[in-house]
Amino acid sequence: MAKPRSPLLGAVFGDVRRLSLRLRVFLFFALLAAASVAAIAAAAYYGYRRLDPEAPASAFVTAALLGGFASVGLATWIWFLFDEHVAKPLVALASTLRSFAHADLRGEIDPQVARYLGDLAPAAAAVSAELARSREDLDAALKAEHERLLAEQERLVAILRDAPFGCFLCADDHRIALYNQRAIDHLGAYGEVGLGRSLLSVLNPAPILDALERLRRREAPDAATDLVCSTLDGSNSFQARMRLFRNPSDSGGRAGYLLTVRDVTEELRRLGAREALLRDVFDRLQRPAANLLSTIEALRTPAGTAPEARARLQSAVVDETRALTEAVSDLRERYAAEGPGWWPMADAPAGDILASVAARMTVSGIKVDVDAAPLTLRCDGYAIARLLGDLVEAQASRDGVEGLKITARAEREPKEHAGGEARGEARGEAAGGDEGDEAQIDICWRGPPAPIGEIDRLLDRALGDAYRGVTLRECLRRHGTDIWPETAGPGEARLRLPLAIAPRQTKAAAGPERTVFHDLRLLEATQRRDQPLLSELNLVIFDTETTGLEPHRGDEIVQIGAVRAVAGRLLSDDCFDMLVDPERSIPPTATAIHGVSNEDVAGAPCIDAAGRRFHQYCRDSVLVAHNALFDMAFLHRHADRIGARFDHPVLDTVLMSAILFGRSAPHDLDALSARLEVGLPEHARHTALGDAEATAAVALKMIAMLEQRGIATLDDYEREAAAHRAFLERGSTGAA
Amino acid sequence: MTKDVLVVEDEDSIAYALQFLIEREGHSFRRAADAASARSEIADKAPDLILLDVMLPGGSGYEICQEVRLDPALEGVKIIVLTASGDAMARRKSLALGADAFIAKPFANDELQGAMARLMADAAA
């Protein structure tokens, strides 16, 4: 904004800006020369008037002093005018132009910024406007191409979304560029799986590195190899296949890889358990069986007929038989506990299976109603539909059967009894409602019950060509179930088939939506440098809310919020937001700022647990915070309790701002956000996550600007920041 | 009080042991070695208790169990299913088909005697 000018000054200087800049500079210096001459003349005249013929030197001294003071005053005034109207506008204009050029800002340049510099400001504004127009044109073209590529990419990603295996696409340095939900299911519990994080922080590195090395030695573009790998703690095992993957746009650099994994922990456990069971069958049965035979042989000898020997041998027979019986019972229970053997199970909606049966019956001219609760069954859907279809057909062919209907609903599995149950005690009826842990598939009808003998004979049928001689009975056995007739009420009968409900169905919370997380730019090979660029770093940008501003006087963290940026891109799905019990009361003044109250943190983890989780989240990352010294002080203080040190490299957005915009510029987060045109929703301010997001936005823009200034690596940043750190430590900022 | 116990079991050794146990308790013992003889024995005279093996020549114990339960004339007959298949589904299937008790082989004598005594007491009540 131009300052209001007095009428007199306006009359004198009003038209000055119409003159060319060169003429104005000439006139300015002419005025300077004239003023200097006038000042010297005035000083000389003053000296002349005070001339004392007795001591003429004093008049010359006086004149020289006055002339000198006048010249110094004139020079000071000129410096002030130059600083105000030339130097400062030039710095501001340069900073604005850099922001436009490197931080992709698209505002307008205020012509008043350099109103005494002639056409400079309007010319810079014109260049900026032209730059903005060019960018918009380029953006439009890029957007169209980007959308086309995105649609293509989404089609490919959709293929992986429902893949029955975990899938990781990794860059050559093992950073994850793509993974699917199944990968989270397999590995999410064992570490932080996420874009930009190293796969080797979750999986045992040795088999991965060995397989990768083998593939690279083959030098075949499509080489693949199978491997077995495990989680870092060895608790889960995976059958995996690795294939080299080279980014088509990257002609240099080393190839990344695609790793597909299938959790075989349970299979291996079952296999081990079955082998152990088989071993125990021999171990535990062989000895009593052999002893029995020997004892019975002894009983048949003449010596064994003596009364005392006979009693002893009979007692031995009883003992060995009892041992044998107990061993058989125990082994059978262990076998039953292992469940059925392997069968290709899948999650299938009960409604779909029943609808398939009804459709088959329609073709056969049999009317059957279906009524399925919204259940997902864990079964071989085709085999079960085939079994139900055969059973319905068999019932429809019997005399007196009418009103066929198939229902599916959840019921509680009956509790096991030690034996000797009274009839009806364990009929498997649910206590009430639709809740249950087992699905009951009932084929119901009005008419006589189904003879179990007929059902048994039907179960001897082959399941189908695809199952190579497997019978319906074997199919039931592999599903760990059986089927039987029951009387459902007066004149009504049914066949009951219990089936397992898919695990997710038994939980109140639905599982996460199947999706694929990816950022294929991570595959672009980073150029081999001594240090990566700032924009290539894995960043965790965080903020803490606290009980106060003095960690050394007992203030504590009440909330930690963080977001992750990889290769200069904020990962919107990957954030950390945790309340922390400070183990002391939160002052109302602090609650008024961040909104976290004592009630909010009741039951929240203390700093040791929260800090460990946060430390895990920060693994292999560079930390970024606004006035990082403040936040880091809280974390460092509790390093012993947390059991881990936050010795990560740290970037501070206050220091970045001081480097880029000078120390005298305001560096608080609001000022930075306004300067860099980062939208900051008011409701998100002073929440840890909201401030972390705002910090991330300004940090990413400033990193781009720093790199343009040649501050491209962590070392470069450290060198520049060191000069400003002392200034920051004096507490000159309004941060935190 | 003496009860009439029918043992439906194709294995002689087990049938012999069961006979010993049943007669020691003072009950009368009959035996059928296959499904057809079992039907015949039941038709001749309704027993008080049937000890029923599942795997039988000519049919299954489940069939006999269901037939007994569907015959109103045999309403008071108690059935104990004995099977080498001791899994939970076999137990549920037996009970659903009308068995009064289920005992997995091999079994301890005490277990069988306890179940028999309980069912005899129920019948007498």
Report on the structure:
The complex is a heterodimer of chains A (736) and B (125). Chain A starts with 6 loop residues before the first helix and ends in a 7-residue tail after the last helix. Chain A contains 21 helices and 18 strands. Helices cover 47% and strands 16% of the residues of chain A. A 6-stranded antiparallel β-sheet of chain A has the order 3-4-5-1-2-13, with helices on both faces. Chain A has a 5-stranded mixed β-sheet with strand order 7-9-10-12-11, with helices on one face. In chain A, strands 16-15-14-17-18 form a 5-stranded mixed β-sheet, with helices on both faces. Chain B has a 5-stranded parallel β-sheet, sandwiched between helices. By secondary structure, chain B is α/β, with parallel strands linked by helices. The interface between A and B is medium-sized, with 34 and 32 residues.
Beta-strand content bin of chain B: 15-25%
**What is the count of DSSP helices of chain A, taking H or I runs of 4+ residues?**
21
Biggest sheet details of chain A? 6 strands, antiparallel
Supply the number of helical segments of chain B: 5
Q: Report how far the terminal alpha carbons of chain B are from each other.
A: 13 Å
What strand line-up does the widest sheet of chain B have? 2-1-3-6-7
Instruction: Compute the CA-based radius of gyration of chain B.
Output: 13 Å
Terminal CA distance of chain A reads: 31 Å
| Order of helical and strand elements of chain B | EHEHEEEHEHEH
Average per-residue pLDDT of chain B, rounded, comes to 90
Mean pLDDT of chain A: 82
Shape of chain B: globular
User: What percentage of the residues of chain A does DSSP assign to strands (E)?
Assistant: 15-25%
User: Quaternary arrangement of the chains shown?
Assistant: heterodimer
